[in-house]
Structure formats: structure tokens, C-alpha cells
Write a structure and sequence with these properties.
By secondary structure, the protein is of the alpha/beta class. A hairpin with a 5-residue loop joins strand 2 and strand 3. The protein starts with a helix and ends with a helix. The chain is elongated, with a radius of gyration of 24 Å. Helices cover 44% and strands 13% of the residues. A 5-stranded mixed β-sheet has the order 3-2-1-4-5, sandwiched between helices. Helix 4 crosses helix 5.
């Protein structure tokens, strides 16, 4: 049966038919790119979508159409997982409230001008581990984090002290620290520590999680790309997972907007 008859029988064009035959002769092309993608997914804990994978491959000198990358990721089961949203319940007595100085302006043109902070739950078979962190909006890096088995004001205070110690030569009086209205952030001890360090507190409006979206987003990333996929059995295991992931996030995980990891941008300034 001639190619013309075959094309009429299957209802395809001659050019499409020959293009199909050409692809059949070179199946290794997809396999080779798939192996590069597989190695990248291994490095990033299977968390990259096709857009971030495009940037990662580009850094290796491998340039492919993003749609091609998506097709191969689907074909070889190399897709990342879908993120989940978190819920937050406010608790405790409020002694101090602050204006919403951040006002959803999540852009910062210099390091240590705008920080966001929050606490999240990490569920383990041993119980709940609490994670407190501070994120710099300049490059979205995590500049400080602490874990504890109890949700206390001291957990928050230790996170701030660690951030100041880490950035002591760079922090200026203009730094804003934005939080929600959780009880640690409205406490007298929090007020006194921010006054001591010359930090200007900023606070979300009541019941409005979008005002502190940049902190919420990080916890969503951490849980979806790490915690939910490898349910920790103990506090020790959860801490090790958090340490590994935050190091990866700060030093290696590519951001859409910049094309580099957070600390790569920070160290270049």
C-alpha cells in the first residue's frame, strides 16, 4: 500500500505522515531530554513545574520550548505535585495592635527593608511541631527560622533574635516586620523586643490572610513540596526535613521572576 493511499485511509496529510515516520526513527531525542528532566527533578525533590524546569535546563545550556518540556514531563511521568492551601486559626489575647504598613506592597528594592513572619503547624506522628520563620521580601529568602513543640511567644522572639544576629551588619532602622494578629505578635514581649531592635511592626487586618500572603505562600510551598509528600514520623525527622528543604529553597530552588535561587540574588547585590 502506497503512502498516498495510507494518508487518504487515515485522513492525514503527507507532510504529517512523513513527520511521524521521522519521529519514529529518532525516539532517543525525547528520552535524552527526559533524562535531563529526571535528574533535575531528583535535585529539586520532584517539585519543578514545566516553567521552572525550563529555567533549570536553560542554566545547563539546554534550551527547549516550554511546551515540549511539558509534553515530555507528562509522557515520562515527571510532573510536580499540586500545592495545597493551609488554614490558620487565631488564638490568644491581643495586647498590642499595629497599623498595616506593608499594605500588600510585597516589593522591596533592598535587603532587610521588608520582612514577613508567621508560625505554621507541621504534623508528625509524634505530635505537632511549630515552625516560625522570617522571610525577606527583597529576594524571598528565609533569613531565620525556629521550631518548637509548643506555640509560645519565645519561639517568635528567638526567630527575631536569630534574624538580627544573621543580618546584624545589614539591618537598618527602616526594616518593617509584618505579621498577622496571632497572639505572639500582639504580646508585650514582642512589642518590647521590636522596640529594642528598632524594628517597625506591621500587622495584617483582622481575618485577612491576604495581607500576609507572602508568609502564607512559603508555608504552602514547604508543605506541598516537602512535608505532605514525606509525612514525618517524629519531631527529629521533621526538623531534618525542614533544614534540608529551607537550604534547598534558599540556595538552589529557582524563582520564576528572577530565574535564580533567592540567595543568589542576595549575594549579587
Amino acid at each position: 500500500m502506497t503512502s498516498s493511499v495510507m494518508c487518504r485511509f487515515f485522513g492525514v496529510s503527507r507532510s504529517g505522515y512523513y513527520d511521524f515516520l521521522k519521529r519514529q526513527k529518532h525516539p532517543w531525542k525525547d528520552a535524552k531530554l527526559a533524562e535531563h528532566i529526571r535528574q533535575q527533578q531528583k535535585k529539586c525533590f520532584q517539585t519543578y513545574g514545566y516553567r521552572r524546569m525550563y529555567l533549570a535546563l536553560k542554566q545547563e545550556g539546554i534550551i527547549r520550548n516550554p511546551k515540549t518540556i511539558l509534553r515530555i514531563m507528562k509522557k515520562y511521568d515527571l510532573l510536580s505535585e499540586i500545592r495545597r492551601r493551609r488554614k490558620w486559626v487565631q488564638m490568644g489575647q491581643q495586647l498590642h495592635k499595629y497599623q498595616n504598613l506593608l499594605n500588600r506592597n510585597f516589593q522591596a528594592n533592598q535587603p532587610n527593608r521588608k520582612w514577613v513572619t508567621d508560625i505554621s503547624y507541621i504534623h508528625t506522628k509524634q505530635g505537632i511541631l511549630y515552625l516560625s520563620m522570617i522571610r525577606d521580601l527583597y529576594d524571598n529568602s528565609i533569613i531565620s527560622y525556629k521550631t518548637g513543640t509548643k506555640q509560645t511567644v519565645n519561639l517568635v522572639l528567638d526567630t527575631i533574635r536569630s534574624a538580627i544576629k544573621q543580618e546584624v551588619k545589614k539591618v537598618t532602622a527602616e526594616v518593617q516586620l509584618h505579621s498577622d494578629q496571632g497572639f505572639p505578635y500582639t504580646s508585650q514581649a514582642y512589642f518590647q523586643l521590636t522596640q529594642e531592635y528598632g524594628i517597625t511592626p506591621s500587622m495584617s487586618r483582622r481575618g485577612n490572610c491576604y495581607d500576609n500572603a507572602m508568609a502564607e505562600i512559603f508555608f504552602g510551598i514547604l508543605k506541598t513540596e516537602c512535608i505532605y509528600r514525606h509525612q514525618p514520623t517524629s519531631f527529629h525527622e521533621a526538623r531534618e526535613m525542614i533544614d534540608r528543604y529551607i537550604y534547598f529553597y534558599n540556595h538552589e530552588r529557582i524563582q520564576y521572576k528572577t530565574g535564580v535561587a533567592p540567595l543568589t540574588l542576595r549575594h549579587s547585590t
